[in-house]
Amino acid sequence: MRTLTVATAIAVALFLTLGVQAQTPPSVTATCKDGTSFSGTTRRGACHGHGGVQAWGNDTAAGTKSATATPATPAPSKTRTATATPAPAKPHAGTGQVWVNTNSKVYHCPGTTWYGKTKAGTYLSEVDAQAKGYRPDHGKACS
Questions:
Q1: In which band, very low, low, confident or very high, does the pLDDT at 103 lie, cut at 50, 70 and 90?
Q2: Per the CB 3.0–4.6 Å rule, which of 18, 21, 51, 124 could disulfide with 33?
Q3: Alpha carbons 38 and 31: distance in angstroms, whole number
Q4: d(CA 89, CA 97)
């Protein structure tokens, strides 16, 4: 009887080992912002060092949704009107306009890295920005 128990245990262990090896992990693919592609078993670390993920590819894991799927848009309501907040118009170069980051209270000069590119902000004249208490980026005024 003991021989049968050991043989059964060995068979179960062998089956589990082979069963785990026979299963292939789900494949995750993505396109990085710099144009390179990523493939792996998880989304963790995808496109690290490549500017982040631009778009996720097909995910073969059961029960997961691809990030590229478009969400269903609700039917327009009769009682409310959907109005999108318009983006502030970009001023013409040389008009003395700065980009004010309303979150950090810092303004950026035209031609700098963050000019018009922060998540929250607006265009103001440099004089108005200083009058409202905003400070120049890195302490360097534009004019």
A1: very high
A2: 51
A3: 6
A4: 11
Residue 112, classified by CB atoms within 10 Å of its CB into exposed (0-12), middle (13-18) or buried (19+), is middle
Distance CA 129, CA 45 (A): 39
Q: What is the mean pLDDT of residues 81-100?
A: 63
- For residue 45, the model assigns a pLDDT of 82
Give the separation between CA 98 and CA 129, rounded to whole angstroms: 8
> Between these two residues, 75 and 40, which has the higher pLDDT value?
40
Mean pLDDT of the chain: 73
Residues 101 and 67: their CA atoms lie apart, in Å, by 29
Q: Any residues with CB less than 8 A from the CB of 127 and at least 6 apart, and which?
A: 96
- In the structure, what pLDDT confidence band is assigned to residue 78 with cuts at 50, 70 and 90? low
Please calculate the CA angle 57-58-60 and round it to the nearest 5 degrees: 140
**What's the rounded mean pLDDT across residues 121-134?**
92
CA 104 – CA 140 distance, rounded (Å): 16
